[in-house]
Amino acid sequence: MARIVAKFGGTSVADTARIERAADKIAAEVARGHEVAVVVSAMSGVTNQLVEYCRQISPGHDAREYDAVVASGEQVTAGLMAIALQKRGVAARSWMGWQVPLRTDDVHGKARILDIDTTRMSDSMRAKEVPVLAGFQGVTDEQRISTLGRGGSDTTGVALASALKADRCDIYTDVDGVYTTDPRIVPEARKINKISYEEMLELASLGAKVLQVRSVEMAFKQNMPVQVLSSFDDAIGSDLPGTLVTREEDIMEKSVVNGVAYSKDDAKITLAGVPDVPGVAAKLFGPLADANVNVDMIVQNVSLDGKSTDMTFTVPLGELDRAKDVLSKIKEFKGVKVLTDTQIAKVSVVGIGMRSHAGVALTMFKALAERGINIYVISTSEIKISVIISKEYLELAVRALHTAYGLDKTA
Ligand code: ADP
Ligand code: ASP
Ligand code: MG
Q1: What tens digit of pLDDT does each residue of 206-243 get?
Q2: How far is the CA of 346 from the centre of ligand 3 (A)?
């Protein structure tokens, strides 16, 4: 007998028929003698609609009320899932974050989980009741409802699995595992059977939204096995048909490049004619950090005349206006020209085998050059290489890299 947390994403609970299908899987796991706790997302599209309602009334809305509104989608599906389980003769009850309680900090809209008190939930599980926890939401010490950021139900799933000391967290979604790249844009993408926490963390933070970044961070820290699988297939989680996210030591085959990720959520800022004197970078990035602007990739050109230079960096698209505002207030940068570009995309290749292989970057640069794709900015870490290119070449670049690293299904 295993203890399993099963999380169902938005498309897996998109309507009552899908909720019933998900309930069938849970009932089958229970019938096999497993102890199951369930985490659900809102029906697909619902959270977007709720976010839009807040924006329509006031774009600068109170973040606490935003959370009260957007957390409601998960309340509906938790109740419906409990009803669907009861219909199958499985004792079940819904739990809202505040009822558990699942405590978070007070960073509304992007709160972090502080702890989950599972005392009452464990009692109910001992009495053979399946708990159905509303994902994405928690409660602050001020007794306000909080939410964990978009895609946050994945994090609820992993956090609950670790609090309940589960054997595994199953993430049911609309694809049957983690692929070498987004299967929606590259049909040749291959399913990965096992992937390391490190690689999954890079892929998720570089744009592969199949798992929320924080859920992977938490699984890595807690050493919690996570399995991504489809809720549309007939198989159930215990038959292990999906992708297992696990420790590097448990993976025999270490690919040089295991996946390609992309994101369209960045903007590029170039400062032309920055004075080439010590301390300039601190004068620039200090105020940006103070204003909570997340600077990602940075390049500074060598000064040709010894007096001034150019500096380019990327920021999240949603933080561009704030960044521009900060820049306009730095007095040392009075004569500096600020050029912004929102038509960019970031494409990254990730693989733990990169640590022990040379020439990985060269393959990337050649593949892009052959298609006439210009690289604006490059950044690397031990297991990833990212480039910024023009947004119009995004799909072409992802496909080209997928082929160049031998990831295509037919290869
Ligand atoms: P859910 O609603 O179940 O949480 P998401 O839409 O958040 O589902 O995540 C699943 C989606 O992630 C897939 O439909 C797929 O388009 C996308 N995706 C992006 N990169 C990958 C990848 N490398 N492997 C699998 N899916 C990916
Ligand atoms: N419903 C939330 C969202 O759409 C959380 C989730 O689905 O994970 O972002
Ligand atoms: Mg998701």
Answers
A1: 999 999 999 999 999 999 999 999 999 888 888 878 99
A2: 20
d(CA 211, CA 153): 9
Residues 6+ apart with CB under 8 A from 145: 64, 67, 68, 71, 97, 98, 137, 138, 139
Distance 281 CA to ligand 3 centre (A): 36
Helix (H, G, I), strand (E, B) or coil at 294: coil
Q: Which ligand is nearest to the CA of 48?
A: 2
- Complete DSSP assignment for 226-284: EEEEESSSS--GGG--SEEEE-GGG-S---S--EEEEE--EEEEEEEEEE-STTHHHHH
Query: Among 153, 210, 215, which is best to mutate for testing ligand 1, by the most ligand atoms less than 8 A from CB?
Result: 210
Phi and psi (nearest 5°) for 390?
A: -70, 140
DSSP 8-state class, residue 309: E
Binning pLDDT at 50, 70 and 90, where does residue 411 land? low
pLDDT in tens, 275-325: 888 888 898 999 999 998 999 999 888 888 888 889 999 999 989 999 999
Q: What is the pLDDT of residue 208?
A: 94
Q: Please tell me what DSSP assigns to residue 180.
A: S
| Domains of the chain from N-terminus onward | 3-249 (3.40.1160.10), 254-411 (3.30.2130.10)
With 0-12 CB in 10 A as exposed, 13-18 as middle and 19+ as buried, what is 86?
Answer: middle
Sheet holding 377-381, edge to edge: 259-263, 344-350, 384-390, 377-381
* Ligand 1 atom 10: residue of nearest CA: 210
